[in-house]
Records
---
Amino acid sequence: MAWIDGELVFVNTAFSCLATRSDINSFELHWRPPFIEQLIPADCCHLNGLADRNGFPAYGTALGETNTPAGWRENKRSGGILIDVQSNQIIARGLSMPHSPRWHRNELWLLESGDGSLGRVDLMTGRYEPIIRLPGFTRGLSFLGPLAFVGLSQVRESATFSGIPLVERLTDRVCGVWVVNIESAQIVAFVRFEDAVQEIFAVEVLPGVRYPDLINHDPELIGRSYVPRTRSATCRLNCSTRSSTRVAKNVPRYCSPISVQ
């Protein structure tokens, strides 16, 4: 997903389209591939990725050029495509389960997940050029300068993932986040999950953030989370020890620093 002119544009995989939020409907249609004839929740092409360029939704990845329910599954090994959202043209075909297109340093990057690779696409020829193959199902990509942060999943040997090059190439696949220098095509670091985590769906670099967190639906966590009105990231009450000052009781924890004389 991406912020476009103050609006969140996201991939609606079930309906094979790009969508925006709606106050009335479940979503508002923003764009759909030219081969998708109608909006039905059938995952016809498994549209999964979006790259913005210069403030516009520019490129999308899908696992198949199909208009039938779950039709992409018939040729997941090499039926993947890269679509130009603005022109409705297919830029590249023959990809193995592509994900996570990104525009970075004036080049279009994506992950050919079915082969476990990271690479760039030549927009003139439509050729995908992998720079490295990694030991897992590549899905989730973010950049910081010359560094690419790539999510890897183990993927189960199920009907969904059978017959793809990655499964044939590797018996043991790993899950984690790998860091690749795109200038040298070398791995510079990785974090490997060896227990409960088996799949990564998205990766995002947050520059300058030391302790990120996710908002979820845990009532206890939400009940203890606050947004302060101060400029500071931390909301503090004035607890002066002067006898002439007493701290107000029952002050809402989201309030600005306050003292009562």
---
Amino acid sequence: MIRLIQRYLLPFLPEWFAARARTIVPASIRASYRRASNDVFLLSFPCAGRTWVRLLIFRTLQHHFGIERAAGLNIQPLIDESGDLSAPRIIVEHDGNPHERTPSDLLSDKNYYRGAKVILLVREPRDQIVSWYFEATRRQKIAGNESLNFNGEISEFIRGKRGGLETLLEYYNIWADNMAVPDDVLIVRYEDLRRDPLPQLRAIVEFIGFGSIDDKILSEAIEFCSMENMRRLESSGRLDDAAFQPGDRDDRESFKVRRGVVGGFRDYLSESDQEYVEKMIGEKLRASFLSNSSDAR
């Protein structure tokens, strides 16, 4: 019965519900929970390209299974519809909603993921914090989080204690200290995915457990999930997801799919803001898995 609830009920619950539940249930109880050996978590701090990766996985599996349905972001029902009972359960989370927390309030205990596989999406912090700024100022009503809406300038935002740059850097540091907790961790760098998506997508689907997918299917998924086509899908409302719509159709910065430009932070951060961010990264960031995300330099 527990496994049926896990597989067929939990994937349909809102992500915020699962995240809030994890903050209420004591760590000792969560750690004792035995999860399936093929559970796969897709995790990130906001604005690391998670929507893009979800659609890439969805489109790939949709063609792999030969299922006709509108494109969407909810992967698990697609897997369930395939009838493949050996397929993994894919759980998409923001990992305790770190963007709502101060650095000291972040969840440092990752035993929740013990016995599971984790895909951790990461991004160059300067680009990520700028993208998160526009998400926090333009899209919280769409996401149903109006209480998190930020009304200040980007200089204030990146220096903020709750969900600002320090929180982002500490989130990565915590994961750097916990890489051995899950059974396996796949680091997916946004910059690598932008530069050369085919081997990155192949690595993702193979890590999940689908190792026999033809490159033609992967290439079609990549073409379908191009930034240009995703913007068209968002503008037209053709994607089967209520949150995948702009906050204001007349404001390009309010779109879920904004620019996707590596190094685009330079267009938004002043010289003093860039100096601050560089200083903070140099002083605070320990996570070595970001060392290759240097295309923006």
